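INFO batch 0412 | record 1 of 1 | parsing
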Amino acid sequence: MLSLSEFLLRWNERPICWGFIRPWVPQPAARYSWMRVLTVTAAGSGLAALVSWGGFWLALSGGASAEASELLASMLGWMPGAATEFGALAGLSWSLLSRHCWNHRAERLNSAPETSAPAPWPRLRFWTGALPAVAYAALVFGATPLLLFHAIENARGALVWRQTRADLKARGECLELACIIPPPVRDEENFFATPFWSHFHYTRTTDASGRNSNNRWADTNWGTLQRELSLPNLPTPKNRLGVPPEKTPEGRTDLAAWATAFRTSTSNALHRPARGAFGSGVQWVAYPIPETPGNPATDVLQALTKLDPILAEFQAASDRPHNRYPYHYEDGFSTVLMPLSAMKSSTRSVALRSAARLTQGQTAGAASDVVLAFRLGHSLREDPYHISQLVRYACDAIALHALWEGLIDHRWSDEQLARFQDVLSRRDYAPGSIRAIECERNIAGYELERILADRFFRLQQLEALGGNNSPSEVEELLTAISILMPDGWFRQNQAQLMLGYQNLIDSARTAMKPIPDGGQHSHDPAQLPGPPTLTVAGQGVAACPARHHPGAPGSRRLRPRATPPRPRALSRIAARPGPGDAESPTRRLDERPTLPLPAHGGRPLRTLERGA
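INFO prediction complete | emitting tokens
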């Protein structure tokens, strides 16, 4: 039976092992020097580099487009370097084992000069020679270099990750999942601890292995409840491309279109859910609207009475100071974020009711609806998820449009304007935006830790999370191959990912500082500009929110000016005729005042103005 030592000695005695250059073949009694070890290692590295870089270059220059080549380079650019390192380790393992066996035989030959000429090797059969040789070659050129490769890459990755984590923690950053979870609050202080939101709570059950989990809903009718909150979709007329279907060309809420949509919601195919989407056979709930069209505002208000109990519950809980939804943060990227769709739908319903009440002259109720719409968006302020902050911005944009509709018609009183300004002055989007990036960073690190703990299952779970519920054989093979990747690669990616997120966080913190008129960042509150104002009936109140919440930790108040600042966004409304004046209320789009969208540093953002 051929042994590993015999296999190495036989191959090292052949000229093919030394490039058919016989003077390079060592003599049986000569020592296998360290120079030969370095030469074989360099040869293995050079051969692997030649093959891998040559194949990579051929793949990039195979007639693909520049975009495809760039994508291929970004995806597979690591392979030539890894192949070069693996080739060097294969040459090193071969040369080290060969040196040990060769020098051991040389010592025996030198200690017994009478046997200076070793006997010729006997011929071996397939089972005793060729088959073991294949196994030894796989061991020397495959298993041993792979183990060395994993050990080196794991040590390198662990060192990089340890250093990166220490540097970030030294800067005061917290990378743990617990750092982004809001603290628990008492139910009587929690906006989400109400009967309506309890329908969207769920518990998780896992099997004995702790892998597969199922969600058990507190209320199995949560889908029907959420669907009742959703307003029907309005088809966009072909002659109004680019204009939202729920708005008139002048930008006002199209109450007539909404009344028609409510009236036809039970038969419109656009509004009927697919069978099995939220439960088999469940149909859309009809709105209480008369079959005969009447006044659009009256019809819309009657249709929205279906939501009065839910909206009244929101109104009753609006004074609660905290907003803690019981998410299952341990699910990582698989966390079910249920209240977001219901929150946006509720905000749209409240804003629509405000527009209908304004048309009916119910100014007090419309103002209360505007404040409630802002409160619904504000309820997502403490939610660390990025999508939650985006829904928060969308809810505030809806509420701002409801506020604008009253401003354009001069419907708000000075007391109502002061109330709106108090609501707007509490808006501060910078902390939520930064916390959302921190949340993404910490969850990404948490998911990588879970992948390292159970790689194959977690990679399959991520594939399914991306919508790939039926991966192909190639994708399954790639997932299986990923098991062979060293843990150090995941650690290096984790370190680079944390640094990338940290760059985003640092840029966001810098960009969201208040900027005075000089254009330079300042930490002096006395140098910050004052906010613009809303001017109605000759009385001015600030139009844009301050940079920080007054009284909040670390807040900076804006210095009040001796004289009221010049209005920037909505002051022109007071000088324009209202609906009852001689001028027609229909205006060109480029003549409409811009919406008072909140901005940082007291500077209003402006909507895109288009010509008629």
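INFO post-check: Residues 308 and 329 are 32 Å apart (CA to CA).
INFO record closed
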